[in-house]
Amino acid sequence: MLEFLSPDSRFMQLLGRVWDLMLLNFLTILCCIPIVTVGAAMAAMHTILLKMVRGEESYIIRPYFKAFKDNLRQATPIWLFMVLVFLILGGGIYISNVVLASFPAVLKVIQFFMLILALMLYMYVFPCVARFENSFSGTIGNSAKLAIGYFPRTVGMILVTIAVAAAGWFIPQGFPLFICFCYTLPGYVCAMLYNPIFKRIEENNGVVQEETGDDWSVQPEEETADPENDNTSPAE
User: Fold this and answer.
1) Nearest Cα residue to 190 out of 81, 42, 35
2) Cα–Cα nearest to 192, from 160, 228, 146
3) pLDDT tens across 74-85, in order?
């Protein structure tokens, strides 16, 4: 029993990870409330999640808000751009399927295909903001190329995101758990999927692989938080 409750036991490490993900999720929800800051909140979340996946010792609260502040300027225009894209595509799909019943079927297929492409882009754009410094167009373009160039991983990221969202919507009994992990659970799995891609870029001194285009500079590592001033457990 004592070994089971030891801080080094797998159970306690798992419990600590669950707590970290729950705390990070609530911080992300809090920073998403102003709506316009959603992009910075998601980028900050992926900054912490990537450290968790890589097993780098990191605290949650202070590094999160530091990443939020550092990414606010770069992430906000990208977030507003993504909102505009989804509004245009979503509005077009609504009009073509509800308002205009005689809308050509081929155009409906094209609209749906474009929506899938936008969702693929969304899977990478904020992780890229979190880890790399680049221009607006460079981030959008390279994120799109990563989404297409690593299509199987992209599909996995989309499926896990949709699965968690569907579970929260269709299983009312699990809604409290959904609130606790709605962002960080799919984000953590996505980080496991895109981490090998990012490592390949970093090992190439921040230069994207030939098939993905422009150069990126890697974000500087954050300083280690002071345990005395941060009451959260480190991400394993």
Assistant:
1) 42
2) 160
3) 999 999 999 999
